[in-house]
Specification:
Helices cover 47% and strands 14% of the residues. By secondary structure, the chain is an alpha/beta fold. A 5-stranded parallel beta sheet has the order 3-2-1-4-5, with helices on both faces. A two-stranded antiparallel ribbon has the order 6-7. The longest helix has 17 residues. It is elongated, with a radius of gyration of 22 Å.
Length: 225
């Protein structure tokens, strides 16, 4: 099956995790990091889920799944080993048009979660279609050696540059030339070494004088997360 790649905005959206074990805990962490409104349904759960619930960072309903629980959800993760419950979740999700991921049954998923490398707003994902999550993880680890934090800083710089260039008028071809000048310059080296004075001098040399170079450098200086 050929999967269609997409980056999904779930900020403020209800996402369900059915189950409370180690896998469920990892799913909860990834959902919260993207701003989702997380609800866990499970009679028992790992200590971390309880702590997050006590802190008001998620909702934990301490009971078994029942029909109707998926109403209003954007995504649902069936992180339980109970196959009968898995089948019921799949049936309800498919009938309601809700995207569902069954952790141990990739063939039953309507979406899959790839291994993800994040450097600020830079997101690189690797998927094997559920065939070998371990291989996807290994490739992600290899990519981490290539795409370090400087790439996240660079994306922050380019994002600020777009905010200044695009509203300023001019033709799209000229905008593209400006972006390519920065991309083709030695910006990554200066960011990696945190040589901010040299970076500012470089940008002033290659960018139009009307642009606020100091704000671009300040964006690059900020830590990425």
């Amino acid at each position: 099956m050929s999967l269609y790649p997409v980056n999904l905005a779930i900020n403020g959206q209800l996402c369900l995790v059915i189950g409370g074990g180690s896998v469920a805990t990892r799913k909860v962490a990834s959902l919260l990091s993207c701003g989702a409104a997380v609800r866990v349904i499970s009679p028992q759960a790992k200590k971390r889920i309880g702590e997050l619930a006590e802190a008001g960072l998620l909702e934990w309903q301490q009971r078994k799944y029942r029909h109707g629980d998926l109403q209003g959800a954007k995504l649902v993760f069936a992180a339980t080993d109970d196959h009968e419950i898995q089948d019921r979740i799949i049936s309800e999700a498919n009938a309601s048009g809700i995207l569902v991921n069954v952790v141990t049954r990739p063939e039953a998923c309507s979406f899959q979660v790839p291994a993800a490398l994040r450097q600020g707003e830079l997101l690189i994902t690797v998927s094997t279609g559920g065939g070998s999550p371990a291989m996807a993880t290994r490739i992600k680890q290899e990519l981490e050696l290539i795409y370090g934090p400087e790439y996240g800083r660079f994306v922050a710089l380019m994002s600020e540059l777009r905010k200044e260039v695009v509203p300023s008028g001019g033709v799209q071809a000229e905008h593209k030339r400006i972006f390519e000048r920065v991309l083709n310059a030695d910006v990554f080296t200066f960011i990696r070494k945190q040589e901010w004075g040299e970076l500012e001098a470089l940008l002033r040399n290659i960018l139009p004088s009307t642009l606020n170079v100091s704000s671009l450098v300040e964006c690059a200086r900020k830590e990425v997360s």
